[in-house]
């Protein structure tokens, strides 16, 4: 925890009340060397300015339940592993970021499948959520033109949103 205290400039008492995934997410700016912007926030602002409705594919409570499902013990172990070899974690994160920037969703999918630390959580983190979203997406796009933003990790593979929409008969193409 001393490493987190030094990196995050927070006292240990404050961190004891936080869920491990929150502390881990606070380390990403250290990996990037900057504070990342929020594409989601930008899209919501643009939609609000254009007086477009903004809906979610799932609730924040559901997202929180998925992130906390492994339990604090497992999440704490992942957090310790994350910081124990911070340089390795940083390298892996930057490799994923490079794949994201190259817009290679299949390579990004394959890279996420190699992550042993989260392999047993993929069903909950990605695949079940993708399957839940596709009926919502298809219903919305049948009613009117719609825009959906999802994390890049949800796109690739045979259980990804793109493949699931194609199985429903939709044509999906990348917009660069």
What does the model show?
This protein is an all-alpha fold. It is built from eleven helices and no strands. It has helices spanning 2-8, 12-16, 20-26, 28-32, 39-49, 60-68, 71-84, 86-101, 105-113, 122-143, 161-167. α3 (20-26) runs parallel beside α7 and α7 crosses α8 (86-101). The longest helix is centred in the last third of the chain and has 22 residues, at 122-143. The radius of gyration is 18 Å and the shape is globular. The N and C termini lie far apart (42 Å). The mean pLDDT is 83.
List the helices and strands and how they pair.
Layout: H1 2-8, H2 12-16, H3 20-26, H4 28-32, H5 39-49, H6 60-68, H7 71-84, H8 86-101, H9 105-113, H10 122-143, H11 161-167
Helix pairs in contact: 3-7, 7-8
In a nutshell, what does this entry contain?
This protein has 176 residues and is mostly helical. 64% of the residues lie in helices and 0% in strands.
Task: Write out key terms for the chains shown.
single chain, 176 residues, 0% strand
Quaternary? single chain
Helix content: 55-70%
Shape field: globular
**Number of continuous helical runs:** 11
The total beta strand count reads 0
In sequence order, what are the helices and strands, one letter per element? HHHHHHHHHHH
Low-confidence stretches are: none
- As a percent range, the share of strand residues is under 5%
Report Rg: 18 Å
Largest sheet, described in full?
A: none
